[in-house]
Amino acid sequence: MKIPVLLLKNISKLGKAGDVVMVAKGHYMNFLLPGGMGKRANAVEVARMEELKKKMVDERFSMLTAANELIEKIKAMGSLTIKVKVSEEGSLYGSVSAEDIAALATKTLGETVDAESVILAKPIKEAGEHTVTFSMGESKADVKLMVEAE
Fold first, then answer.
1. 8-31 average pLDDT score
2. What is the pLDDT of residue 77?
3. How far apart are CA 3 and CA 20, in angstroms?
4. Angle formed by the axes of helices 98-109 and 43-77, to 10°?
5. β-strand 2-7 against 20-24: which pairing, if any?
6. What is the C-alpha separation between 84 and 92, in angstroms, rounded?
7. Of 3, 102, 116, 145, which sits most exposed with the smallest number of CB within 10 A?
8. Edge-first strand listing for the sheet containing 38-40
9. Among residues 92, 85, 86, 104, which one has the least CA distance to residue 143?
10. Element (H or E) spanning 98, and its range?
11. 120 Cβ partners below 8 Å, 6+ apart?
12. Considering the entire predicted model, what is its pTM?
């Protein structure tokens, strides 16, 4: 006998969280229920999950909108300049990290830029001009980074 179950977690070969699927009663009782992966589907639980899904979509939309606005501000910024200790040959003592670039962008823009959004093609270990990519959501921006001696 199969029963309708509301999935609470993504389960491969069965469905995604929020889906209502038909499963054998034994599978539900022995696997899904004890593992906290599913509930018996009824009108109240399905309505609650639909409301939760709608809320998650709205939150994701607002996060993407905020990320797009921040990317536009980063694009408008055009370039960043960071001053670091440099040897006579022009190589850095250490390197410029994604965290350093994110902190500089945060300071310049006045808005928080996470280090995870900074993509470096290779470690920056020399003075000069470098290209840095900022990626947030589906938006990207390339910015010139000038590494200068202190």
1. 91
2. 87
3. 10
4. 80
5. antiparallel
6. 7
7. 116
8. 20-24, 2-7, 38-40
9. 104
10. helix 98-109
11. 98, 101, 132, 133
12. 0.65
